[in-house]
Amino acid sequence: MDSFKGQGGIQMLLTAEQEAQHIVSSARNMKMARLKQAKDEAEKEVALCRSQMEAEYQNKISESTGSSGSTVKKLEDETDRKIKALTKSTSMVSKEIVDLLMKHITSVKI
């Protein structure tokens, strides 16, 4: 009778081991499912963040490009004004410079 009891105990242990393996396997599967879900959610967040940052980057580029065009125009206008001012002042002084040079060239000191 003790041997019958021993076989029943072994059978109980085998059943308990199978049940434990089933529980561990189920826990592993659930863990893997949670990890996959977390990975998918993280990838979605990364994609969303990347698209937002790309949009901000494109906005900055378009702002800087637009302002550089107006800056170039402003610099061209300023350069034209300075050239005209220099041309005007040169034409006003050129007669005096020519007269001064002619005076020094033609006068002979003895």
From TrEMBL:
InterPro entries: V-ATPase_G. It comes from the Eukaryota. Residues 32-59 form a coiled coil. The keyword Transport applies. Gene3D superfamilies: 1.20.5.2950. Keywords: Coiled coil, Hydrogen ion transport, Ion transport, Transport. It holds the Pfam family V-ATPase_G. Belongs to the V-ATPase G subunit family. V-ATPase is a heteromultimeric enzyme made up of two complexes: the ATP-hydrolytic V1 complex and the proton translocation V0 complex. Catalytic subunit of the peripheral V1 complex of vacuolar ATPase (V-ATPase). V-ATPase is responsible for acidifying a variety of intracellular compartments in eukaryotic cells. NCBIfam families: V_ATP_synt_G. This is V-type proton ATPase subunit G.
